[in-house]
Please model this.
Amino acid sequence: MSPQDLLARHPELWRRATRHPFLDGVRDGSLPEEAFRRWLVQDYHFVRGLLPAQAYVLAASPRPDQRVLASGLVGLVGELDWFEEHARSRGLSLEVAVHPTCRAYVDFLRGLRELPYAAQITALWACERAYLDAWSSASPGAPAYREFVEHWTQPGFAEYVAGLEACARRALGSASPSERATAEEAFCRVADYEAAFWEMTWEGGRR
Ligand code: HMH
Model:
């Protein structure tokens, strides 16, 4: 079972993770401002949580995976600066309650350290691949949102996702059947959380 097999085995789940009226609104400019603001602030908190979760994955990683995971951590620190600057320029406070949907996703990522490494790296790849696919569906994006579309569709980001995929492919290739089953479950959980994240930004989400 490879990362590509996971995408092929769960097409409907993946579609819900990566297609949403939010993204259609980014593409055609019809996105309600409120939805965009909610997304910006909550995604900042998501990345705040992803950074330490990924540090645990790095701590568990085999030697060949260290560079891509470490470079990803540096990238996330830069992304936090980027979010802070966007919030500042829009007059948005980042001192808000973290939405339960965002909190649940981050808690899940923090809990990855309890799982076999193959599941950890599969989940991390799925998380980033989801953003690559989701924002690609909004490309090139209405002028107001183009910078955000470019952020997650630029070649450097696609290369990073490909690097994570190579790590996940190696880990899954040498995993036991039960480790592979755990990795598939983690993949599905990530896809579910991604879909819920879009719902949250759009409608306030389910609490
Ligand atoms: C919800 N998923 C979500 N936010 C992100 N920034 C990414 C994935 C990619 O880092």
Remarks:
- The chain has one domain: 3-202.
